[in-house]
Amino acid sequence: MKLVLDHIKSRTEEFSRLPVFAYMADQSIAPEQRLSLAPCMAHYVMTFADMNAYVFREEPAQNKYQHLVNIHTREDASHWPWFVADLKRLGLDRRFAFSEVLEFLWGEETVKSRLLSYEMCRLTLQATPLQKLVIVECVEATGNIFLGLASRIGRELEQATGTQYIYYGPHHFGCESGHTMGTQDVEQQLESIQLAEEERGTALALVDKVFALYTDFVGELLAYAKAHPIDLLRTGPLGAGRHDRHAPTPEKRTA
């Protein structure tokens, strides 16, 4: 398993160098603007709460690997209210027609967010408890990169406005330990797991797949942030709606 964990570390280093993180770290851009990507995250954040409750978790745990996964899910499943609260703090909690919200959440600008949710569900539902643990390690690794930068932005906003951000602030980042929470010596436990050659190959491929999904996702976040000034998001539409060329058209009525 140590080889798999080392591969996760290597992929994490690559992930940390993606353009979105340079954007988030750029203090020449207003901190609120650097968090204008928040609406684009909504589908994934809310689905991730369900994934923790209904996809990753298995009660009762059939082995020690599933037990570690379950510990992680109980913590992460409760983070979505922090996201909702920070949308309000960013001035993005406005009244929209229900149809407008649906068109945005399932629109063209959030395709990668949805695919991340769907593919993660597919991978996890097909996974063994040990493979789930590998997926959890990837999720935590990518999350720590994002949340580490977001916490700096949240701290900037708190210093400037006195408003404390939770999801995009130091509190959320402080809850992430980099490994499955609630267990002692977890890194040593993980490194000591012995994998057969086939299991190792499957795990390494799983790591690459998960990181590819998150890479596409954060690329979409960057495109959204650059296309949507925060001031316009506070007063105008959330973004492009759904334009499906294959959507059915109403049948013409005949006399």
Question: In brief, what are we looking at here?
Answer:
This protein is mainly alpha-helical.
Briefly, what CATH class?
Mainly Alpha
Distance between the ends:
70 Å
How would you classify the helix and strand content by structural class?
Answer: mainly alpha
Would you list the SSEs in sequence order as H and E?
A: HHHHHHHHHHHHH
Under CATH, the homologous superfamily reads Heme oxygenase-like
The shape is: globular
Instruction: Give the number of DSSP strands.
Output: 0
Based on CA atoms alone, the radius of gyration comes out at 20 Å
Uncertain regions spanning at least 5 consecutive residues: none
Write structural notes for this entry.
With 255 residues, the protein is an all-alpha fold. The protein has one domain (2-233): Heme oxygenase-like (Heme Oxygenase, Chain A). It has 13 helices and no strands. α4 (42-56) runs parallel beside α8 (111-125). The relative contact order is 0.20. The mean pLDDT is 90.
Blueprint of the fold:
Layout: H1 2-16, H2 19-25, H3 31-34, H4 42-56, H5 64-76, H6 80-89, H7 98-105, H8 111-125, H9 129-161, H10 170-175, H11 186-191, H12 197-227, H13 230-233
Helix pairs in contact: 1-9, 1-12, 4-5, 4-8, 5-9, 8-12, 9-12
